[in-house]
């Protein structure tokens, strides 16, 4: 009896054990992905709200851009929540947006001040992720900041939708799986601007570069140098200036006596406003003749905000832009109207890029049906879309860089109104600025990271 | 670029590169003179305060910044505007602002607006004098007998408070100011030296001349008036002057006010050169302290000479020829000079025995 019971019990025990084991293991095996999507990723929103973190320079040389970016983020959040006129929520193609928040959750946001410094930007991004439970970080205006915050976001497993950042490194050697850039880059500026410079100023020119001394400045200097030297221009000198130098006179003083007949200002934001105003209004460079030619100034990366700051000094200056509110397409007009009615001025290119990034993030979440970052990343990689004002646009999967038309712009000589400061000289088609992702190297890294939930 | 392959400018090929570098050196010296003007004016005030009151005033940079914002405030006052619907913008309701002065007085009004920066000196003098008095009576006088470390802490704290107040009212962004149209642009000053091809921004030349004039006025005031004589006597031996029955404390309050005005005027006139922001004072404070130390603590002449000297050295160090030999020298030259001067002449160029040596 005892033997029988034992034999029966053992068989039963084995069966039961196996069944139980399979029973426990199987659901886990099937739902492992679902479980990690629900629980084990950074700041998975549990309540009725989802928090986005907007990290912009509210002080420092790029503060103007930062203020405009923040306005754009606020407008995008309103539109995502179904408030206001809906803006570009209606025009995105293809779209999964519903106008009721993201995945049914109301969108809220927190803000941080990057101070245009990498360490301050990382600290405020970290605070927004850890204390405010932000599920996505966006913002920028400095590539140094973007690269630093992007790498932090990769480590913490939080999506980074870069705002204004123009260095080749952001989606080149420093690219990250969790980072996406809608803005164009210095290489594309060079490709777009080079031919126009050749047509306007000829093939026999001598260029003098003043360059902001950090990642963006270096890559822009290199890209513009390559593009202009390919035309036959000579680079006389390239001088690095500290970010936020304020008074650039000591760097401008040698320019006219260097033999150069073109000054290329690889500056942006407040630095560009200062250096350009000093070059044009104080040193009177635009009225000089050198080597028997009219002296010219080029600002490869240009924006309406800087044009406002620099005033008269921008007239006739050539540069490139990611977008302009005067573009003749329906989405651009809708955004300009919506933004203009809300804030009394049309959106800058920095504002447009931040607005679009917020919508694209929301769209990717709706498309993936989850906030789980690896799924969102897959939804954004190689995503081809239109209806955001830039024409057909591709988010390339291999480096997370957007490809779209690039604008060559010029400071307008005779503005028709207070906002009409730049004219579009040429719309350079996307295929002319597309390049092979491998030229800048870098490694995107893994989809799955331990992140802040680990 | 290869060595010896120096690019030529518009001058004839017969002229050598020596002339080219002479032009460049003259231009950088000019550049150093206007920068040096600002350093000298700030350092002069610092030394005046240190020499008379014995206070190391870390809020002095903030006074420079407040001066600059006097110009901003004055120009805002002049450009109080009517908001007019901008009909040229059609896709949303936009407004533009037209100053009442222009609306009421036409071209005369516009001219007043254009000359806002030099005119704001009229506002800056009484305002800075008041700020100086208030600072000295309200805070600094309580720290005369305290250690230099405590004085530095309290004045540095005051500087932070002042700049945050300015940030609250004027925002964090630099505010571009323009020089009067007649003084904007650059002047061909090569003719003065019998050389061609040297043109330099007019306003910067105006700034240099202005700083010389203010320095001359301060020295004249100290050397030629009875008040100045008492102050100088007080700087040399405060105790004896007090024993003679002179209320040296009141005199020194006025000196503090004057130092504040000097720093303020330096700030007012600097606005067209560099768009002021709330942080402007801090950027100049450190440099000005180096100027005072190099010139010699308590020496007015030393402060002025060191101000111009360091301005010129800083500009010359930015020359590409020099940066090619020592990269990054433009960023550290001032501190390098300070180190060398302190090693060779610990009292500074014109320092007096016994000052800050107790």
From TrEMBL, chain A:
Q: Per the database record, which ranges form the Leucine-binding protein domain?
A: 51-412
Identify its protein family: Belongs to the leucine-binding protein family.
Q: What organism is the protein native to?
A: Jiella avicenniae
Q: Tell me the keywords, alphabetical order.
A: Amino-acid transport, Signal, Transport
Q: Which InterPro entries does UniProt cross-reference here?
A: BCAA_transport, Leu-bd, Peripla_BP_I, TAT_signal
List, in alphabetical order, the GO biological process terms annotated in this UniProt record. amino acid transport
Instruction: Give the PROSITE patterns listed for this entry.
Output: TAT (PS51318)
Asked whether the UniProt record includes Repeat among its keywords, one would answer no
Cited Pfam families: Peripla_BP_6 (PF13458)
Coiled-coil regions listed: none
* Record SUPFAM superfamilies: Periplasmic binding protein-like I
Q: What is this protein called?
A: Substrate-binding protein
């Amino acid at each position: 009896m005892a033997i029988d019971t034992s034999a029966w019990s053992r068989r039963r025990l084995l069966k039961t054990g196996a069944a139980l084991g399979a029973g426990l293991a199987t659901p886990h095996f099937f739902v492992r992905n679902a479980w990690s999507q629900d629980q084990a990723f950074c700041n998975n929103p549990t309540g009725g709200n989802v928090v986005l973190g907007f990290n912009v320079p509210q002080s420092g040389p790029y503060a103007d851009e930062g203020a405009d970016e923040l306005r754009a983020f606020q407008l995008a959040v309103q539109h995502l929540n179904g408030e206001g006129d809906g803006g570009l929520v209606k025009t995105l193609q293809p779209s999964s947006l519903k106008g009721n928040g993201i995945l049914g959750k109301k969108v809220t946001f927190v803000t941080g001040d990057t101070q245009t410094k990498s360490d301050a930007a990382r600290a405020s991004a970290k605070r927004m992720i850890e204390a405010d439970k932000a599920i996505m970080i966006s913002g920028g205006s400095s590539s140094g900041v973007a690269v630093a915050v992007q790498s932090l976001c990769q480590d913490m497993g939080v999506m980074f939708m870069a705002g204004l950042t123009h260095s080749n490194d952001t989606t080149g050697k420093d690219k990250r799986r969790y980072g996406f850039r809608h803005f164009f880059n210095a290489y594309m500026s060079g490709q777009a601007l080079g031919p126009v410079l050749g047509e306007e100023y000829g093939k026999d020119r001598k260029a003098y570069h003043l360059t902001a001394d950090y990642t963006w400045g270096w890559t822009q200097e290199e890209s513009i140098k390559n593009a202009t030297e390919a035309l036959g221009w000579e680079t006389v000198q390239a001088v690095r200036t500290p970010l936020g130098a304020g008074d650039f006179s000591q760097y401008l003083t040698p320019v006219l006596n260097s033999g150069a007949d073109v000054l290329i200002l690889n500056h942006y934001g407040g630095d560009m406003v200062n250096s350009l105003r000093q070059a044009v209004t104080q040193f009177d460079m635009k009225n000089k003749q050198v080597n028997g030619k009219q002296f010219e100034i080029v600002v490869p990366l240009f924006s309406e905000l800087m044009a406002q700051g620099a005033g008269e000094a921008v007239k006739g200056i050539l540069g490139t832009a990611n977008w302009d509110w005067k573009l003749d397409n329906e989405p651009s007009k809708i955004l300009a109207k919506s933004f203009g009615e809300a804030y009394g001025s049309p959106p800058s290119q920095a504002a447009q890029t931040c607005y679009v990034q917020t919508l694209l993030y929301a769209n990717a979440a709706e498309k993936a049906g989850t906030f789980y970052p690896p799924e969102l990343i897959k939804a954004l990689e190689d995503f081809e879309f239109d209806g955001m004002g830039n024409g057909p646009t591709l988010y390339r999967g291999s480096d997370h860089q957007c490809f779209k038309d690039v604008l060559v712009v010029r400071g307008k000589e005779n503005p028709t109104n207070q906002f009409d400061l730049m004219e579009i000289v040429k719309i350079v088609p996307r295929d002319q600025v597309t390049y092979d992702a491998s030229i800048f190297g870098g490694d995107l890294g893994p989809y799955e990271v331990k992140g802040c939930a680990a | 670029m290869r060595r010896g392959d120096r690019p030529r400018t518009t001058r004839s090929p017969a002229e050598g590169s020596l002339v080219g570098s002479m032009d460049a050196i003259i231009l950088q010296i000019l550049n150093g003179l206007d920068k040096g003007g600002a350093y000298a004016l700030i350092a002069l005030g610092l030394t005046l305060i240190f020499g008379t009151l014995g206070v190391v005033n870390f809020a002095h940079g903030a006074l420079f910044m407040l001066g600059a914002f006097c110009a901003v405030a004055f120009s805002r006052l002049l450009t109080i505007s009517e908001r007019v619907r901008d009909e040229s913008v059609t896709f949303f309701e936009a407004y533009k602002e037209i100053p009442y002065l222009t609306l009421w007085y036409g071209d005369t009004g516009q001219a007043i607006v254009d000359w806002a920066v030099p005119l704001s000196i009229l506002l800056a003098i009484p305002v800075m004098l008041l700020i100086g008095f208030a600072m000295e009576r309200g805070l600094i006088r309580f720290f005369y007998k305290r250690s230099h470390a405590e004085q530095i802490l309290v004045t540095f704290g005051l500087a932070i408070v002042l700049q945050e107040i300015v940030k609250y009212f004027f925002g964090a962004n630099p505010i571009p100011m323009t020089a009067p149209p007649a003084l904007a642009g650059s002047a061909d000053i090569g003719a003065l030296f019998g050389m061609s091809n040297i043109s330099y921004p007019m306003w910067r030349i105006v700034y240099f001349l202005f700083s010389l004039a203010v320095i001359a006025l301060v020295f004249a005031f100290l050397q030629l008036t009875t008040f100045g004589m008492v102050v100088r006597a007080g700087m040399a031996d405060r105790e004896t002057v007090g024993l003679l029955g002179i209320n040296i404390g009141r005199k020194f309050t006025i000196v503090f006010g004057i130092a504040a005005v000097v720093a303020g005027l330096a700030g007012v006139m600097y606005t067209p050169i560099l768009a002021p922001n709330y942080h402007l004072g801090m950027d100049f404070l450190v440099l000005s302290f180096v100027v005072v130390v190099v010139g010699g603590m308590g020496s007015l002449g030393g402060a002025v000479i060191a101000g111009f000297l360091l301005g010129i050295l800083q500009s010359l160090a930015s020359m590409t020829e020099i940066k090619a030999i020592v990269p990054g020298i433009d960023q550290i030259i001032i501190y390098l000079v300070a180190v060398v001067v302190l090693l060779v002449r610990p009292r500074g160029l014109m320092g007096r025995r016994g000052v800050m040596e107790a």
